[in-house]
Design goal:
single chain, about 75% helix, globular
Length: about 160
């Protein structure tokens, strides 16, 4: 069981289910999941800043890595750039969403980043809906459902 790296209000039972799905997934499946997750969270905050191109580039490099045409060095460098943008943001919700995106891109480097991206997504939800555990549960269920769907789709191919 992975430990949460950040403090968030969470449904530990649902996180445990997600963690089990994570444990059983391949790194490529986790990459696909993490990119969908990051896009989902960035959409929730309607992120369209000028540095949005850096995030898009990160997604593209991760997808290239999945196909064997990008280096881990490239993945790490673009992930670091996304995290720098997150650190510079004065809006905690935008910062958390960008951290989710940075970790999502970094899954190509280390699969553990998928759970960290998931936790940052929950942080975004808790910032958008303070004191609303139902919103957190809904997000965790979305995460579980999408990871399961990716694993099922990948097994059929």
């Amino acid at each position: 069981m992975t430990k949460a790296k950040i403090r968030i209000p969470d449904d530990t039972e649902l996180r445990s289910i997600l963690n089990q799905e994570y444990e059983d997934a391949s790194q490529v499946q986790l990459c696909k999941y993490a990119l969908i997750l990051a896009a989902h969270i960035l959409e929730k905050i309607d992120y369209s800043a000028p540095d949005c191109n850096t995030v898009k580039e990160g997604f593209m490099i991760n997808e290239q890595w999945q196909q064997g045409s990008a280096r881990i060095h490239d993945v790490r460098q673009i992930s670091f750039r996304i995290h720098q943008i997150a650190k510079a943001s004065e809006d905690p919700t935008v910062s958390a969403a960008l951290r989710a995106a940075g970790h999502a891109v970094a899954v190509a480097h280390m699969r553990q980043h998928a759970m960290v991206a998931s936790d940052y997504a929950v942080k975004v939800i808790s910032l958008l809906h303070p004191d609303c555990m139902e919103a957190v549960r809904k997000e965790r269920l979305w995460q579980i459902c999408h990871l399961q769907e990716i694993k099922k789709t990948e097994q059929k191919q």
